[in-house]
Design a protein that fits this description.
Chain A: One of its GO terms (biological process) is transmembrane transport. Chain A: One of its GO terms (cellular component) is plasma membrane. Chain A: It is a multi-pass membrane protein. Chain A: This is Sugar ABC transporter permease. The complex is a heterodimer of chains A (307) and B (306). Chain A is built from 14 helices and 2 strands. Chain A has one domain: MetI-like fold, CATH 1.10.3720. The radius of gyration of chain A is 24 Å and the shape is globular. With 307 residues, chain A is an all-alpha fold. In chain A, strand 1 and strand 2 form a beta hairpin. Chain A starts with 13 loop residues before the first helix and ends with a helix. About 4% of the residues of chain A have low confidence. In chain A, helix 4 runs parallel beside helix 8 and helix 8 packs across helix 10. Chain B is mostly helical and 306 residues long. Chain B has 15 helices and no strands. Chain B starts with a helix and ends with a helix. The N terminus of chain B is likely disordered. Classes of the chains: A mainly alpha (307), B mainly alpha (306). At the A-B interface, helix 1, helix 2, helix 4, helix 5 and helix 6 of A face helix 2, helix 4, helix 5, helix 6 and helix 8 of B.
Chain lengths: 307, 306
């Protein structure tokens, strides 16, 4: 992943450092504690999951090497692909909506034309502090039919609003929860990037009598490019890895969420309810792979357009 | 924002100074329309939180009978808090203690390891450094949810499930934190200072503890903040790792209460789920508000390509 890469990788600093020979291995001393835990808790589990995904546990014959059989099974597994299609749809709709809203809020707060701008910045960022579980619980209650706000608002107007937790509206309902949680986070990424635009650019624009829209289009948006890329890539990953919200809403409508609403939820259900560890590992690895590929491709496209 | 500049190490965000010299945006007239539109956004962000506060103050019966957007009936917040804390043998307090344990050891340890590593990568040359760097950068994009199932599978093989280590060890790895510490170390620690200390005969570890840690403090607070939020909110991993409620963190415990409430035949405790949620978000919100400026420096350093 090069999203976060810097143009000055370690090598370029060499000349300044000129470490003496006796310090050659000192750097390892500092890096190795992190690296050991990293290898144990991140690299090894992925390796073990890949290993597991190559085996099958059969009633007859026990645990035996199966090559890529689990992967071929996954490729034709309609439950997996339905879940994948669902998170893809989620990505295509929710991510742009959220990022455009976040961008608009960041530009508004940065425009200096807003009264009490810090109040808005803090308030809109605040939902990010709410743990995803609590966010989903809260919205679940608001949507829900027990003492839900949605039904109550319908009651004020003497109508029945559609149930947000039914089959057709569940995905938009989840989209709303995620949007609510992350608008502020993305807004702050954009806002931080806007704050470091050098003042001279604005001065020049002002001398040219450029309108606000032109300033946004020609100065602010180009400066936001890298930040938008980072936010997009992280949002793609977040969508593909969707888990917490469906797992909490599961208790509100078990039929709709089922056992394979999203690929992650599917991997979880396979491990937990089915004890199908090998296949669960396969789904986790496959989904991780698809996430990396899509994130990488999107980032490439973004970079090419930027060049 | 003056606060932002003091928060970040001097050049953490970017070489260009984030100061808008003579051009003073505050001269421009405020827009009522913009403020009005933004107020809709503000309401959207705060309404669910307000709803939670209102409904945490109701008895379970009143939840169903009173207006959801305003206080109604008996004001039962204190009762609810008391019930939440004592329900089922004080399990909420136990879960709170667990969450604190995971946060302090997990996030604290993650910050320390990231600081060591970031400093090591920024200030030393050693064989294999480029490989380490590539590995860590690659890992930044790996989401913790993608790792939950593989980590569970491996940990259950070696017997690390259903105990606190199963949660703590994975939390210790924070590649994004290490990446931030690399940037902060690179920018905030002058090489001349390290050289001077070495000339004076100081050992590397002494230099680290007496000079580096001091200079990196703002950066460490930023990384700690991200790590604290990540561990406080951690859900998938503990959900999959633990089956004994004794080790649950608050996130998993609350969802368990919700599951109980939604299951026919068991005792619904909606008021406790709501109050528990409220109690869970209050501390983290305070941390958020107090530490605001550190967020911004972290997000700026992390997202702006150098």
């Amino acid at each position: 992943m090069t999203v976060l890469s810097a143009d000055s990788p370690p090598r370029s600093r060499k000349s300044e450092l000129r470490p003496r020979r006796r310090r050659k291995w000192t750097g390892w001393g500092f890096v190795s504690p992190f690296l050991l835990v990293f290898l144990f808790a991140m690299v090894a589990p992925v390796g073990y999951a890949i290993y597991l995904s190559l085996f099958q546990d059969k009633l007859i014959g026990g645990n035996r090497f199966a090559g890529l059989a689990n992967y071929t099974q996954a490729l034709t597994d309609s439950q997996f692909w339905t879940g994948f299609g669902r998170v893809s749809l989620f990505l295509v709709v929710q991510v742009p909506v959220m990022l455009i809203l976040a961008l608009a809020v960041a530009l508004a707060i940065d425009s200096a034309r807003l009264h009490w701008a810090p109040l808005y910045r803090i308030s809109i960022f605040l939902p990010y502090a709410v743990p995803a579980v609590v966010g989903a619980l809260m919205w679940g209650f608001i949507y829900g039919n027990q003492f839900g706000l949605v039904a109550e608002i319908g009651g004020w107007f003497h109508t029945t609003l559609p149930n947000p937790l039914d089959n057709t509206l569940m995905l938009p309902a989840i989209g709303n929860i995620v949007t609510w949680e992350y608008i502020g986070y993305n807004m702050l990424i954009f806002y931080s990037a806007l704050r470091v635009i050098p003042g001279e650019l604005y001065e020049a624009a002002e001398l040219d009598n450029a309108s606000q829209w032109r300033i946004i289009w020609h100065i602010k948006l180009p400066a936001l490019r890298p930040a938008i890329m980072v936010a997009t890539v992280f949002s793609i990953i977040g969508s593909f890895q969707l888990f917490t919200e469906p797992s909490v809403l599961y208790f509100l409508n078990k039929d709709v969420i089922g056992s394979a609403y999203t690929p992650n939820w599917y991997a979880y259900s396979l491990s937990f309810n089915g004890q199908e560890y090998n296949y669960s590992a396969t789904i986790a690895i496959l989904m991780g792979l698809l996430t990396v590929i899509v994130a990488y491709v999107v980032q490439r496209i973004g970079q090419r357009k930027g060049a | 924002m003056a606060a932002t500049e003091t928060a970040a190490p001097p050049r953490a965000a970017r070489p260009a100074r984030p100061v808008r010299g003579a051009w003073n945006p505050n001269r421009r007239p405020k827009s009522k329309t913009l403020t009005l539109v933004m107020t809709l956004g503000l309401v959207y962000s705060l309404l669910p939180l307000f709803w939670l506060l209102v409904n945490s103050s109701k008895t379970q019966a009143n939840l169903f009978t009173t207006n959801g957007l305003w206080f109604g009936g008996h004001f039962a917040l204190l009762d609810n808090i008391q019930q939440t804390l004592t329900y089922n043998g004080d399990e909420f307090l136990r879960w709170f203690g667990n969450t604190m344990l995971y946060v302090v050891v997990g996030a604290g340890g993650a910050t320390f390891l990231a600081t060591l590593g970031g400093y090591g990568l920024a200030k030393f040359d050693f064989p294999g450094k480029r490989g380490v760097f590539a590995l860590v950068l690659g890992a930044v994009a790996v989401p913790s949810t993608a790792l939950a199932v593989p980590t569970f599978l491996m940990f259950s093989k070696i017997g690390l499930v259903n105990n606190p280590w199963g949660i703590i060890i994975p939390s210790l790895v924070n590649p994004f934190g290490l990446y931030l510490m690399w940037i902060f170390s690179r920018d905030a620690i002058p090489n001349e200072l390290l050289e001077a200390a070495r000339v004076d005969g100081a050992r590397e570890w002494r230099i680290f503890f007496s000079i580096t840690l001091r200079l990196l403090r703002p950066g460490m607070i930023t990384v700690l903040l991200f790590a604290v939020v990540a561990t406080w909110n951690n859900y998938f991993l503990p959900l999959i790792m633990l089956n004994d409620p004794k080790w649950y963190p608050l996130t998993v415990g609350l969802n368990q209460w919700n599951a109980q409430s939604q299951t026919a035949g068991s005792t619904p405790i909606f008021n406790l789920v709501l109050t528990g949620s409220l109690l869970m978000i209050v501390p983290i919100m305070i941390v958020f508000l107090v530490m605001q400026r550190y967020w911004q420096s972290g997000l700026a350093a992390g997202s702006v390509k150098q």
